[in-house]
Amino acid sequence: MNANQGRSPAMQHFASDNYAGICPEALAALLAANDGHVRSYGDDEWTLRVADRLRELFETDCDVYFVFNGTAANSLALAALCQPYHSVICHQLAHVDTDECGAPQFFSNGATLLAVAGEQGKLTPEAIVEVVTRRSDIHYPKPKVVTLTQATEVGTVYRPDELRAIADTARAHGLRVHMDGARFANAVAGLGLSPAEVSWRAGVDVLCFGGTKMGLPVGEAVVFFDRKLSDDFSYRCKQAGQLASKMRFLSAPWLGILENGAWLRHAAHANAMARRLAAGLAEGTGLPALFPVQANGVFVRLPGRIEAGLRARGWLFYNFIAAGGARFMCGWDTAPETVDRLLADIRELAAESA
Amino acid sequence: MNANQGRSPAMQHFASDNYAGICPEALAALLAANDGHVRSYGDDEWTLRVADRLRELFETDCDVYFVFNGTAANSLALAALCQPYHSVICHQLAHVDTDECGAPQFFSNGATLLAVAGEQGKLTPEAIVEVVTRRSDIHYPKPKVVTLTQATEVGTVYRPDELRAIADTARAHGLRVHMDGARFANAVAGLGLSPAEVSWRAGVDVLCFGGTKMGLPVGEAVVFFDRKLSDDFSYRCKQAGQLASKMRFLSAPWLGILENGAWLRHAAHANAMARRLAAGLAEGTGLPALFPVQANGVFVRLPGRIEAGLRARGWLFYNFIAAGGARFMCGWDTAPETVDRLLADIRELAAESA
Amino acid sequence: MNANQGRSPAMQHFASDNYAGICPEALAALLAANDGHVRSYGDDEWTLRVADRLRELFETDCDVYFVFNGTAANSLALAALCQPYHSVICHQLAHVDTDECGAPQFFSNGATLLAVAGEQGKLTPEAIVEVVTRRSDIHYPKPKVVTLTQATEVGTVYRPDELRAIADTARAHGLRVHMDGARFANAVAGLGLSPAEVSWRAGVDVLCFGGTKMGLPVGEAVVFFDRKLSDDFSYRCKQAGQLASKMRFLSAPWLGILENGAWLRHAAHANAMARRLAAGLAEGTGLPALFPVQANGVFVRLPGRIEAGLRARGWLFYNFIAAGGARFMCGWDTAPETVDRLLADIRELAAESA
Amino acid sequence: MNANQGRSPAMQHFASDNYAGICPEALAALLAANDGHVRSYGDDEWTLRVADRLRELFETDCDVYFVFNGTAANSLALAALCQPYHSVICHQLAHVDTDECGAPQFFSNGATLLAVAGEQGKLTPEAIVEVVTRRSDIHYPKPKVVTLTQATEVGTVYRPDELRAIADTARAHGLRVHMDGARFANAVAGLGLSPAEVSWRAGVDVLCFGGTKMGLPVGEAVVFFDRKLSDDFSYRCKQAGQLASKMRFLSAPWLGILENGAWLRHAAHANAMARRLAAGLAEGTGLPALFPVQANGVFVRLPGRIEAGLRARGWLFYNFIAAGGARFMCGWDTAPETVDRLLADIRELAAESA
């Protein structure tokens, strides 16, 4: 049933950066944490240390919680920011709206996502103002939150001035700002700025900092820069089935990638692989990237025969129809050779098609 | 802030079987699974294999889902069995009622837990009949599910005849039967019966089979013996933030403990340690166990000075007030020496007190 | 603060058919029911009688429940048809999506409304197929229900063949069919068919039959034609705060309008007033109705100065931006003179503008 | 199917004060409001006037909302005061816990009711402290609200000093105070104090002021004395299906009973009937009331043959098992003759039994 039967089990793919396994630094920390009896539910030294480390990384006294996955991280954070009769403004390609099976609505018990259009997968102040001012009657959920994805679902990133403009607009309309940072590391690496500049200094209230796509086995961090918003958030996590008993195995891997900068190196590598791919596509095949390659994804409109040919050769990748093309994601472990092999296959297929 | 500062970091405790780390077999499988790119969200060979293995173990064609923790496993299973206006009958010491911060109510959007008394932490047919027939008006949630814990919260186990009697009663009143199996392995080991005999053959519809307390890093299995009940359950898991992207790291460790019987060996060991502790207490200190020691927990009413003395010496354990005493849980890695050291400390303290 | 200050308090408006009061037949029945002590919560003779009367009206053995308003009727019915991880397909102008403040999502604990386009406010089989087949992965809510509004939000009606085509399509894809009948009476009157032909004979599973806009003080009926779907629905109503204690005051008014055909006469009158208005607009002002006038609403694109002029003269009506113009609703009590006065004002304003 | 078949349809009962119909003053106001077209959803003069009238009655600038029934009033108010992972402390006889089919849990998406014992149906500061301090770990819902019923479910009332002591205790533990005032009027009449003294001056944050049992056809008022707590409450009502379109028919009846003191006269009458009944029981039959008769209910332990005999004679009343006896409720229209007839029947039956 699997397209890559018969090929090497070690074949790499571009379907998602979550196809990659655990990076060495995270694994080493996990193994180091597997020593003897340790208090459960987060009352352990690994968890305390990594929370401190994140406060250092962000250069601010933020509140940090570890949950199992991105669906839960985003949904719990949004639920903490709004009531069931409120609405959350998001981009129409936002993962929270398109790929979480209604999780934000479930966790918030009914909050509405209001999806708006925007170039390059990005929200704009204008679009936010338009949707916030469209209705003000009681028959329509009241806007309360703006959520944006950094890096975006199409591999672009918000610059601090763009974030600031959005946050100022949000503030002016009484909205909170949430950032879905499933690929926050890739955004930070892509921008070459500090994590603080790309988040709270630009007006973000809550960040869901993705761990899995950075090379962890499981787990994301919810980071509250505005600590008033995290009142009783640990109870919220517990009730929602998001409090790990053996928390050390969620938190220790974070230590592993944070303590030596591995998180940023891996992200930079994935970004470099995406640029390598985009460059190869543009040069070798004349297939331009649909969006600026600012993080670890490349989107391209593939001729049908090339797409079919790639799948026949065992490559796994998604068609992101709403974004207008095929999506190729690079991970922390994507090898240059893998990129080059993909490019070679595309070139071959293009030549056959011609 | 930690009572055991200054003592060996490797000191073992009796607070919970979730203080233990990853058992070697699970860890080996996790490491083996960390190889290259693998499809996400459960569409991988590890997950498929372990589901098959569980079907073999249970000798039936059950549906299997892997979620992150026991709170979620129980809550999602119960939500699949009832509507918000239904009620779930449980023992008054049931973990779902006392220690999940309202999670069953959250996941089901309002279902009511009706807690009843029962000797040795066990539900009885009589208690179920009493609560089911108490009210039948529309102003009271309609009973729909019986949930029982195997092994119970006080370290006892239901025998198959007890389960069958409960299940027959449930069936007769239109109720489904859910089993919280956080320590199902300990129950199986304690009874010396097959998993099937202790679950579906005795009338259980859904089992939440605990992995964490058996030595996994994270994750539980929800096993539907009545497959009609699992309609769209994968959607339910996804929406509720319980679908792991790198699922292989939840499923492969299960393989590790299932393939060679490690799960049962570890459970039997933990049970043996509990019996060793109970025997030592009875003989050496005259402190009888409050409940038959049929799984991996020992409950005992400790004189205040002994309890204080143990804590002063760095021992971590819970007072389970509702059960009437201190709780000592043994894990897969609890060493006989640890048990003996605890017993020696208790004996010393008892002598001092005398 | 009210635009019509200074004018006669008896001035009629076109903002909504819920601006009208209680019709004489409903009021007479309410007064007749206000006699002595009567069992509460629906266990009274009025409620039993009107449920029987509805079964006669629909010529089938349906289950009938009375709730307080349309928001609740639609939301509870939809919640009975789907789980939180399911989706409900609706027209993009559907009231459930645009004007119930997220109520369907709240009552269902997170179900998703998938809004699609369609001419004249109507869903089509093609649009349903498109949205049902767009995605089938677990990251997207699974379609489970089609909801359609009869009469539609833009004053058109579905013919039985249109309903049947939709219901057949729904059935073929495993979907249930719900009808928002806030103005069901107007649809029946407009089509000149029996209630059965316009509902269950055409494939509708559940109808929310609007009472308020027919001249009742409060209350709607939820009619389950497929009785399997109404399991424990009375518990659902009770828990959701929709079980009236003095139920007779919700049900008796239904008797008043059903027993002598008043419901249909009033609806026919409102429809006639809408046609009178549309005809007058077309003839006298050259402003064509945006949609066929098949029920009791007229939609027209008003020049800004005419709109402003009408408001200055105290007329209340809505701009239904998504529908492309101003909305004029006629009620059971809309007088021909009111229509004529409005038309005269529009003609005057048009003349001034010219 | 009805026990009183064959008897006068005008026979009065003691089952509930909601068996009574609409009182004359409410009906007159309803009829007066049924005049012409009126803005919907509460933007009408009746609703504005009655809100002002309630502010006068309570001598404070409170926020007022009208909803359909008591289940919704209490549940929405509680949902406004807590999050899903919080708990609400109530008496074990509290209607919100025993007779609303899990509504508070549904509207709050999972909040827990913690029921405690207390003499005469009343909470005490001690009981609150006990339950609040019992647990403080994250696995147990965090207490956030105290709810008390005034008059209580067993016909007693809280004096202002009792309320103040409870409110002070609540405040000291970070809890809000909610009052279920389904029979608030009876409590005010029973105490002979002002509504303010019995509510906010004694520390109540939110009162659900019952209208139905005072003689309205439908509807209760939610009164926020702490206005910060009512943020966006109108959206909450709308989403939860509790915003009446023809709001005037909910609000105008309130005007009818408030403007001339009818609300208090009716309550005082009902209370007097209860005292008449209790006195007659004590004197004529030696059956003492189980609780002080401070409002409009009488509870008495009836010998089985007397109870059966009353039912055989067509009397409707409830057995309130948890309260220990039969419950006899008096309404605004309970006639002295009805009380006397019941007493005569009891005396006869007692004589037969003797």
From TrEMBL, chains A, B, C, D:
Residues 14-300 form the Aromatic amino acid beta-eliminating lyase/threonine aldolase domain. Its EC number is 4.1.2.48. Its cofactor is pyridoxal 5'-phosphate. InterPro entries: ArAA_b-elim_lyase/Thr_aldolase, Low_specificity_L-TA_bact, PyrdxlP-dep_Trfase, PyrdxlP-dep_Trfase_major, PyrdxlP-dep_Trfase_small. Keywords: Lyase, Pyridoxal phosphate. It catalyses: L-threonine = acetaldehyde + glycine; L-allo-threonine = acetaldehyde + glycine. One of its GO terms (biological process) is L-threonine catabolic process. This is L-threonine aldolase. It comes from Candidatus Accumulibacter cognatus.
